[in-house]
Structure prediction request, 110 residues.
Amino acid sequence: LGEKKCGPRLTHTFTVTNPATNRDSIVIAAVNSGCGCVRRDDTIRRLAPGESAAIPITVNTLTQAAGPNTWHATVWYKNEPEGGSPNIPNQNLSLTLKAKLVREVTVSPP
Prediction:
């Protein structure tokens, strides 16, 4: 995401699309983050073939160090064939945000 100021919330919206060409749906069960500074949208969604959903990820940059930063979130989903099948395991998709945070004000000595 390039260079961003420390302090304001940093939000990026990922788009997830069900690429299936048959009648299989994808069910997004959860979105988990790697730390408490990352907020995510946990809304459970069912995506028909070709359908997309927006998944916003928000980072609280106030508590982050200046310099290069990387944040991760994991989307947990499963394929749901037409007629359903309870034995299909969950799969995951990793989302990554990268930005260089810059502090506008520093206090010295701390």
Summary: The CA atoms of residues 66 and 108 lie 15 Å apart. The chain has no helices and eight strands.
